Amino acid sequence: MIVVMEQGSTEEQLQQVIDKLVSLDFTIHRSTGVIHTVLGGVGPREVDPEEFLVMPGVRECHRVVAPYKLASRPFRAEGTVVRFGDVEVGGTAVTLMAGPCCVESELQIRESAGIAAQAGARFLRASAFKPRTSPYSFQGLGEQGLRLLRAAADEHKLLVVSEISDHTQIATMEKYVDLLQVGARSMQNFTLLRELGRASRPVLLKRGLAATVEELLMSAEYILSGGNYNVILCERGIRSFASATRETMDIAAVPAVKKLSHLPILADPSHGTGRRDKVAPMARAAVAAGADGLLIEVHPDPDHALSDGPQSLYAGQLMELVGQLRLIAQAIGRTL
Ligand code: PEP
Ligand code: MN
After folding, report:
1. How far is the CA of 184 from the centre of ligand 1 (A)?
2. What topology is assigned to 2-63 in CATH?
3. Nearest CA to ligand 1 atom 1
4. Which residues, 6+ apart, have CB-to-CB distance to 69 below 8 Å?
5. 265, 282, 286, 330: which is closest to 82 by C-alpha?
6. Beta strands 265-267; 95-99: pairing state
7. Spans of all domains in the chain
8. Residue 130: predicted pLDDT
9. Which of 177, 206, 294 to mutate to test the pocket of ligand 1 (most atoms within 8 A of CB)?
10. Same topology for domains 2-63 and 82-331, yes or no?
11. Which residues of the chain have pLDDT under 70?
């Protein structure tokens, strides 16, 4: 149930609505917008919206038919902006997050940070805990990797986004990371999602390899219902019968999510295609389609990368791409 209060409604009127929702066993999530306060009530039974519409100070009341409630667009019709100091995700600017797949060494991550900063990225991306398809592949440097990542990012005043693969890592990750990335393989790790609902950092939730948009939003709902409203989604390609690319980049998921949800959505054309030469075209398409940002793999020496080398851009390719993305962003009233 979504209850939108009138502009200028009083705290007392708001409290009356809250009391009624509580009496009906609803859990309440409050969203204070610029103009309207919205109450999201998640409860066990169907209630007639008329019961709320007659209350003083209530402007609108809707039953949310989608299975996800707090992630649905009406909960915050104006859209969510996730703030990291002066950096915003979900506002007018298209946010670039760039870096290697994982932290390999101090030199590699420092060089990567330099490239990301020069390209205009606001976040340095790299994983220290790597869930790999093969147990024999490089698994990441763990906490030492996070230390190197933070130091490299700080040198260039960049924020840090890095993957969390298990709820037991939350406390360690929060020491070094600004944005906790839930990888495609963990999108339905519900224990992790529930714990992230209590985390102090925003979460970047990647779409699972075989997940529908509805399933992605249900996973976001786990985090939101725990009280962490700072969730950013990411389209990163899904499995299909198409074999020309590693995954099939579902660009249409970007406007689909925008309509269904208020949460910002990024696109990851690196994992979405798995091929360096396909990254720039899909990045351009994603920005044109309304993505709030891009997650792109770039490496100082992609041919010797320990993971995802074939899809990692060379530094020069990222610089050239950003020039093109600026023009596209401008054409649709955004900045980059
Ligand atoms: C990554 O971002 O490096 C990554 C492993 O992504 P995904 O979970 O989308 O495969
Ligand atoms: Mn990768």
Report:
1. 6
2. Alpha-Beta Plaits (3.30.70)
3. 101
4. 2, 40, 42, 75, 221
5. 265
6. unpaired
7. 2-63, 82-331
8. 86
9. 206
10. no
11. none
**The residue to which tokens 């920005």 are assigned:** 287
User: How confident is the model at residue 136, as a pLDDT?
Assistant: 87
Tokens of 63: 């039953």
Report if pTM > 0.85.
Answer: yes
Ligand 1 pocket (Cβ < 6 Å) reads 101, 127, 183-185, 206, 236, 271
pLDDT for the residue numbered 36: 87
Give me the pLDDT at residue 134, please: 87
| Atom number in ligand 1 closest to CA 207 | 9
Residue 267 in tokens: 């696109």
The amino acid that residue 300 corresponds to is: P
Q: Which CATH architecture has domain 82-331?
A: Alpha-Beta Barrel (3.20)
Residue nearest to atom 3 of ligand 1 (CA): 101
Q: Which atom of ligand 1 is nearest to the CA of 234?
A: 9
Cβ contact 204:161 at 8 Å: yes
Sign of the torsion formed by the C-alpha atoms of 23, 25, 29 and 33: negative
Ligand 2 centroid – CA 127 distance (Å): 8
Q: What is the pLDDT of residue 33?
A: 79
Which ligand has the shortest distance to the CA of 268?
A: 1
- Indicate the DSSP class of residue 136: T
How distant, in Å, are the alpha carbons of 28, 40, 195, 196 from that of 224? 12, 11, 11, 9
Torsional class of 142: left (φ above 0), alpha (ψ -120 to 50), beta (otherwise): left
